[in-house]
C-alpha cells in the first residue's frame, strides 16, 4: 500500500509531499503515510502502529486526538468553519496568550509560524525605519525570503540565498551569525548597527537539533541589539508552552520586544501568532502603516483547538511529569550508549530532546554539522523497524507528550538500546 501511495503522491505533488522533510530523503527508505493518531501512537496506512516521538514536530503536547481538543474542534466546526469576522474565542485566546507572557501587551493571530516570523520582520522594519536583520545559522524561522538564507563566506556576515527563487538583493538585507557566539553579534553591530532593525533568534534552538543557549548569550545578545536601537525577536514557535505555561523567556528572564508563536497554541491545527509591546504592535494595520492580513487568521477551529489545549495545560500543569519522563528516557539512552562505547550527546529541555553522534557537546550549527550525521539514517531506520518513530532528520528535535507514560518510556528505551547495538555491531 505504501508503494502505491508513494507513486500516487509523486504523480500529483512535488516530491510526493507537501513539506520536504516528509519525503525521508535525509534518512532513506520509503516515507510513511498516516491514517490516524491516538495518544502517543501514530497508525499508518499499511496498518503499523508507531510510538511517535515526532508529534507533528511539536504541536501535540497532549498527544494525538486528545478528547478535549477533539470535542472543541467538533463543537466549533458545527457552528461554522470560517467567518472572516472576529469572534469572542479569538479574544479569549489572545487574552490567554498575553497573560502567559510577561510584557506581551498585544497579539495578532496568523495562520502559521512562517507567517508570524515574516510579519515580525516586516513590523520591526516598519517600526524602526531600518532594513537589515540579524539571524543565526541553524535557527529556522520559516521560508520567507528574508529568512531563507545561509551564512556567506565569512564566519559572520551578509547572508546569501539558500533557495532558488530568493533574490540576492533580498538575502543581502539579512546578516548571519553563529548561535552562542557573542563575538559574532558584536562584529555585526559594529559594522551594521545603524541599519539593523532586529535580531531574531530561537532562545533555545530546536531546528539544528536541540541546542541550549550558553550562559549569558541571550542577555548579551539582547543588550547588544538594544544598544544600537534594534529590536529583539524571540522565535518561540517551538518552545512556546512546551517547557512552561508561557515561553522560554519566562525561564531565562528576558523580555523580547516581539515574540512569534505557533504549534502548541493551535492544538494541532494551523496557527501562528506575533505578540509584543503595545507601542510596536500598534504599527500593524489597521492602526498603523505596516500591512498584514489573512482570511483565515483567527480561524474558529484553530482557535478552539488552541484554547482547549492551553486550558488543559494551565489546569493540569503537566510540565514536571513531562520533564521526568523525558529525563528517564535520556538516562536510559545514555546508559545504553555508554555500555556500547558509542559517543552520543543527548541534549534535552523539558519534553524536548535530540541525539547527536558526537564526542563533544554541540553549541552551534557548525558543531552540529560536524557530528557523525552519517550514523543517523541507519539509527532512524532501525527504530522505525521496531515501530518507534523519530523526526526523519538528524537536525530535528524529538518531543514527548502527556500521553507518553511509563509503558511508552520502557518500550522506547528497549528500542533505542537495540538500535544502538545494531549501530555498534
Characterise this structure.
This protein has 425 residues and is an alpha/beta fold. It has 2 domains: 2-61 and 318-424, Aspartate Aminotransferase, domain 1; 67-315, Type I PLP-dependent aspartate aminotransferase-like (Major domain) (Aspartate Aminotransferase, domain 2, 3-Layer(aba) Sandwich). It is 38% helix and 15% strand. It has 14 helices and 17 strands. The strands form 4 sheets. It has an 8-stranded mixed beta sheet, with helices on both faces. Strands 1-2-3-16 form a 4-stranded mixed beta sheet. It has a 3-stranded antiparallel beta sheet with strand order 14-15-17, covered by helices on one side. Strand 10 (196-201), helix 7 (217-227) and strand 11 form a beta-alpha-beta unit. The protein is globular, with a radius of gyration of 21 Å. Residues 152-156 have low confidence and may be disordered.
Name the features:
single chain; 425 residues; alpha/beta; Aspartate Aminotransferase, domain 1; Aspartate Aminotransferase, domain 2; 2 domains; eight-stranded mixed beta sheet; four-stranded mixed beta sheet; 15% strand; globular
